# Entry
Amino acid sequence: MTLLRLHEVTKEFVTRGQGGLLAPKAAFTAVDQVSFEVSLGETLAIVGESGSGKSTTARIAARLLDPTRGTVEFEGQDITRATGKSLARFRNDVQVVFQDPFSSLNPRYTVERIVTAPLSYQGIAPPGGRRAFARELMERVGLNPDHSQRYPSQFSGGQAQRIGIARALAVNPKLVICDEAVSALDVSIQAQVIRLLLRLQRESGFSYIFIAHDLAVVRQIAQRVAVMNKGRIVELGTRDQIFDQPRDEYTKTLLAAVPQINPEWDRRRRQHEQERKASV
Ligand SMILES: Nc1ncnc2c1ncn2[C@@H]1O[C@H](COP(=O)(O)OP(=O)(O)OP(=O)(O)O)[C@@H](O)[C@H]1O
# Structure
């Protein structure tokens, strides 16, 4: 079943060229006629170099940004210009996990308040009370529930990202958009968070849009991959098609440029290096 559908979505930003305020305004196309669908329960990755339009596409898909042209449909409803109740329902069903957990978590709120906030916005009382609900969510994402009264700064980067994931799960979303959600983490922590994301999807059956520039990460998580270049999707296919039989020249260049590091291989490689050094 198709959950989300972007149809020929274009986003133009009006910018000024060099010369400051006196320079003439010009429209810059950050996303150019992008179309794709996401089915319930699947993971679609969007990859591409910095500036290719991935985040802008994600923000439009989450209705954090309005497209200049094109439509966004969710469960068959056009929500491009939705307001009021239908927008509120959409905002409940689609959650976003951002790259930098520390800047996306309120530093003055306890974890309990952060992860239960999405329910408060919707005017829903957490089942079993706030405390119990927060503890349960923390356990689900592998955090110690006894730390529910701590503040974000008291957690490591990987743990803070788990708080962001717990907050996203609080309202039982149908789609979670991960915008470079593991990019800032060390490789070993990245692998743990990816395992968590995969487990949560297995348990709850929601979909992911997984934005990343790291193809090795995408290979571990995505069923389908869209490759973006200069605002356009240049290739979209199953993970194996994209990685093993890329057709587009840009996809081939992108694949060739990235070292294909699997965290497990990386761990073994480092272990091997250490053993090798020790034996010299
Ligand atoms: N609010 C804005 N005003 C003007 N230009 C913008 C705005 N937001 C993004 N852009 C431009 O649109 C283009 C696409 O940006 P976007 O952040 O979507 O790319 P990206 O692929 O996600 O890159 P990155 O991985 O670096 O975030 C870039 O050239 C960026 O400078």
Remarks:
- The radius of gyration is 20 Å.
- The longest helix spans residues 187-204.
